[in-house]
Structure formats: C-alpha cells, structure tokens
C-alpha cells in the first residue's frame, strides 16, 4: 500500500511540472519565432546573406546586353559568390537607384556598364564612398576618380576595323560615304569614331570617299586627328543614340535629301549591329542605291543572319565570354584581397583608369562559320543558309 501511494505521488508531481510548462532538455538549437528558414540553394561565401558582386547593365532592350546577362549568369555558376544583375533601362537616375540598392545589400564590388558615362560618376562615387571597388564594364565612366578599373574591348581598334573594312571594299574615287555614330553620352561612341576617322580620313582626303550626310565632317575632312569637341560636332549630326528607330529615321532623312548621284554604290559607317540593320534596310529600299557596304559590331544573332544573307557586310565580333570572364576574374581577385592584372589605362577626364583590354575580330561571310559557330559562340541551329 505504501509503495502504491509513493507511485501516485510521483505521477502527480510529473503532471504538475508539465502543466507549469516544463520541457525535456535538448542539445538541438531552437529557432526563434522571428527567424525564417532559408529556401536558397545558392552557394555563397557571404554568411551575412548579402550580395558580394553587384552588376548593373544599361538596358534589356538591346540584344547585346541580354547576351552579356546570359554570359554573366553562365560564368557565375562557377563561383561561390552571391551576385545580382540589374538593368537601368537607359535611365541614369534608375542606374543610380540600382547602385544604391546594391550598396544596401552589402556589395563589395560593383561592375557597371553606364548608360551615360558622365552621369554615372555620381553612382560610382556613391559606391566608392561605401568602400566598394568600382569596375567600369565595356563603357568608361568619366569625370571622376571613383573608378578603380575598366574592363573593355579596344574601342579605338573597333572603329579602325570598321573603317578599314570600308576601305578594303572600295575601288576608284568619289565613293559616297555615309557616317553614323553611337550616343554622344557614351564615351565609347567617341572612341569608335576616333578609330574609324583615323583610317578613313586619308581616303577622304585623297578622294576615295566623299562624305554625303554631315556638313560638320566635310568641314573637318582635312584634319587627320580630331579633338573631342570636333568629334562632338560631327556626332551631333549623325548620332543614332544606339536606337534602331532613330537610325532608320536619320537614314531616311539623309536619302530623301540626297541627290541621285549621292547614291549608287554607297559605303556606310554604322556604329553597331542594331543600327546597321535599320540603316541597311533603309538603304536597300531606295531604288537609287545600287549596292551598299555597311559596318556593325557585337555579332548579334540577327546581324549574323543578315551577314549570311548578304544584307549586312560585316560585324566586329567582341567575344563577350572573354569580357565577362575578365570582369569576374577581376572582381574575384579584389574580393580575395589581391590586385587584378591590367594591360593599359584610359584617361577618363579626372584620372587614369587601369584597364584590362580584350581583342576584337572582324567577321563577314568569309569567316562567319569559323568565328562564331565553330568556336562554340553560337549553335549552327540558330541560323539558316550556313555552308
């Protein structure tokens, strides 16, 4: 009987403890109510949950930058760093907002291709103020010492390649030459034009080419080297602003005002592939244009097909895989506390910016398959009419 009473007493005490909220001790960590389990499977070296590398590209509306985003995504799968890519949609204010948002997420490196090189100085300075390393990508940020590095193709070489292609296809004298340029807000537009002018000008001076669509270029045609202000005057007349429709409208206006003798077999300096296609379509539709040679750059898929079809003469292939890898390697080197490799420097108006440069390749019908298909850049199935 005594044993039974003791047992009942022990049971009563156990029930009392449970009722008062007692727990069995455990060695497992308990999750606080405010904590949320992570659904991310992304590998990272950033234990704070922030972003290591922020990437800001100018717009989703041009195939070139979608290419870059794709290449960044592919390349970054090979790293353990957390990365975010944002687009500014051709708006410098949005660009600065993107940079500020990335700063708030704790980025240590900013890779930025500015919409407007001068306007982007404020974004670069905001990042630099927070100790972020700033890498200008493809386009140089100007007028500030807040840029640490510049990853680029040799933009002057791009222009030279375009100009030389026109020269190589020209015969005789008096060939009509139509000049077009990128956006005056883009420092690269000046570098492309500088390169093209450096090789075209002697052939303009000797009468091989006759400029048909820029009075400013005609006025300066005897100058082998142009100042930035002089280039600005020409670009102001022939800018496409990298816009397909603006390029089309400008080409239509030039052909409408041109005399019949200003047409025939024409030569066209178009700054990139998107504008090249628009300009080519416009010139092809003019009954007084017998033939045209038109330049481009970026090796966009649509322009590769145009080249195969004989509707665009050439493109300057800038292997984005190499440029992206250069940018990522530079960022990772910085994150590891080391100094990136550079191959030159550029004057951005405030300082000399150390740069890593990538070579470019001229592509036309003669080597389009070898350069772009056989190299693995594009699959052959993306195109028709390949030999």
What does the model show?
- The protein is of the alpha/beta class and 387 residues long.
- Helix content is 42%, strand content 16%.
- It folds into two domains: 53-147 and 320-358, Response regulator (Rossmann fold, 3-Layer(aba) Sandwich), CATH 3.40.50; 155-318 and 363-382, Rossmann fold (3-Layer(aba) Sandwich).
- It contains 13 helices and 13 strands.
- The model is unreliable at 1-47 (pLDDT under 50).
Tally of helical segments: 13
Structural class: alpha/beta
CATH topology type of the largest domain: Rossmann fold
Q: For this structure, what is the CATH homologous superfamily of the largest domain?
A: Response regulator
Q: What is the string of SSEs from the N terminus onward?
A: HEHEHEHEEHEHEHHHEHEHEHEEEH
Terminal CA distance: 103 Å
Multimeric organization: single chain
Low-confidence stretches: 1-47
Strand content: 15-25%
Which CATH architecture of the largest domain? 3-Layer(aba) Sandwich
User: Could you say how many structural domains there are in total?
Assistant: 2
Shape: globular
Largest sheet, spatial ordering of strands? 2-1-3-4-5-12-11
Average the pLDDT over all residues and give the rounded result. 88
Helix content: 40-55%
Radius of gyration: 29 Å
